[in-house]
Amino acid sequence: MGAATKYISHQPDSQGYINYSEHEHALWQQLYQRQISNLPGKACDAYLQGIDALNMSVDRIPQLPDLDRVLTQTTGWKTAAVPALISFGKFFELLATKQFPVATFIRTKDEFDYLQEPDIFHEVFGHCPLLTNPAFANFSHLYGQLGLAASKEDRVFLARLYWFTVEFGLMQSKKGDLNIYGGGILSSPGETLYALSSEPERKPFDLLDVLRTPYRIDIMQPIYYVIEHIDFLNEVAKMDIMAQVQKAKSLGMFQPKFAPK
Questions:
Q1: Which of the ends of the chain has fewer CB neighbours closer than 10 A, N or C?
Q2: Is residue 23 among the annotated active site residues?
Q3: CA geometry: angle 225, 215, 45, nearest 5 deg
């Protein structure tokens, strides 16, 4: 999904296990401990329940077969070890078959705060806990099916839906608590604080608006879309998403809220 990468993913053995170095385990431990303390009161309940359910190790990089046991039991999902970058086609194909792609490398110390490619910390810590939640898992599955069937042109619109939900989604309950469910935020200490601050714009989730909102991957998000609760993703899954994609296409994009690159 982009230029050559400096990261090389590890190959699992026949049992699906990967032999990481002590240095890599130490990086995981630092990333995990730095972020887990940020999350109480900020991450949504479904995510925190998923963290409990997965019971992943704090000081070792979790092994995918161990996560799979819990995911399969809770929602019928499992992980799929992938190289650092995969095509959109492969990505949709995996989601459509209830497999969540996990790149099996961990970021280096000099890219601790931000890296352009999703590493195992982003995928496992950011996303896997919510895959224990039925609504999130159902939405991800349907999204994969839609993407698999979509044209190249339509996939660009679908990418925005994923971006503003699975990656950078927020939720605000009727009680007024603002929480995070997007894995891109949950795996980033800086964005966890920023997303809930008074700085960015936050708008109620509107499918058509989301499909028309441009984004950049290399900045803090200037705008977030907010759902009321995690089960709302079931409502989104029932919408005629592809009809809204056609509508978004004819209406065109909103003006970006960020400077051009």
A1: C
A2: no
A3: 35
